[in-house]
């Protein structure tokens, strides 16, 4: 997909790129944390230059969780440079579309498609893709701008590759950061 082929009104949804995914205080940082942030920033900059809307999704973990409201790991990672007019939608399960306000916001943009990136590939990114498709939206996933942690049976890079194949099989469009942004 080239820059011209990106869905015209599709907003960018940044999933769970929160401080706890990067700071390494309670859990290791996600795989290729610095690269993920750099690519996310490239996409955010591209979206702004294109006049696209951007929304951030923040996971609200249960009490005692590193991503629980008020915990140091809970805020959106400051390095992403979220603008004051870019909304944050909270969720407490994997699917960001479980928060009806996100779906209303997307529809308010006149969009029938969304562009997804973030964390974690095998949990919230996968669940949000399914939720978006279940809501009748087209989905583009930035294949090199989502990440996760190693599992006991697969390293993060393998999980990401496997999920990219699964995303495509499910009907999502995959695009790399450089192809999407023209950079």
Features:
183 residues; Rossmann fold; disordered N terminus; alpha/beta; 33% helix; 5 helices; globular
Description of the structure:
This protein is α/β, with parallel strands linked by helices and 183 residues long. The chain has one domain (23-181): Rossmann fold (3-Layer(aba) Sandwich), CATH 3.40.50. It is 33% helix and 19% strand. It contains five helices and six strands; from the N terminus they run E-H-E-E-H-E-H-E-H-E-H. The chain has a six-stranded parallel sheet with strand order 3-2-1-4-5-6, sandwiched between helices. Helix 3 (121-134) packs parallel to helix 4. It is globular, with a radius of gyration of 15 Å. The two termini are 13 Å apart.
Main β-sheet: number of strands, strand sense, barrel status?
Answer: 6 strands, parallel
Query: What is the terminal-to-terminal distance?
Result: 13 Å
CATH architecture: 3-Layer(aba) Sandwich
CATH superfamily: Isochorismatase-like
Helix content: 25-40%
Radius of gyration (Å): 15 Å
Q: Give the number of domains.
A: 1
- Name the quaternary structure: single chain
What is the CATH T-level topology?
Rossmann fold
Morphology call = globular
Mean pLDDT: 95
Sheet/helix structural class: alpha/beta
Q: In CATH, what is the class?
A: Alpha Beta
Task: Give the uncertain stretches in residue-range form.
Answer: 1-5
The strand count comes to: 6
Number of helices, where a helix is a run of at least 4 consecutive DSSP H or I residues: 5
- Portion of residues in beta strands equals 15-25%
In N-to-C order, the SSE pattern is EHEEHEHEHEH
Side-by-side strand order of the widest sheet: 3-2-1-4-5-6
């Amino acid at each position: 997909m080239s820059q011209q082929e990106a869905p015209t009104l599709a907003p960018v949804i940044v999933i769970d790129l929160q401080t706890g995914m990067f700071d390494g205080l309670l859990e290791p940082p996600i795989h290729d944390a610095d690269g993920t942030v750099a690519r996310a920033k490239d996409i955010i900059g591209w979206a702004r230059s294109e006049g696209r809307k951007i929304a951030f999704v923040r996971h609200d973990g249960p009490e005692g969780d590193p991503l629980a409201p008020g915990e140091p790991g809970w805020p959106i990672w400051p390095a992403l440079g979220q603008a004051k007019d870019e909304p944050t939608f909270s969720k407490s399960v994997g699917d960001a579309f479980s928060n009806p306000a996100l779906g209303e916001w997307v529809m308010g943009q006149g969009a029938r498609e969304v562009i997804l990136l973030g964390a974690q590939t095998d949990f919230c990114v996968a669940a949000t893709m399914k939720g978006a498709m279940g809501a009748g939206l087209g989905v583009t996933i930035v294949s090199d701008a989502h990440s996760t942690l190693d599992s006991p049976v697969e390293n993060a890079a393998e999980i990401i590759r496997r999920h990219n194949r699964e995303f495509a099989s499910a009907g999502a469009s995959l695009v790399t950061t450089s192809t999407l942004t023209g950079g």
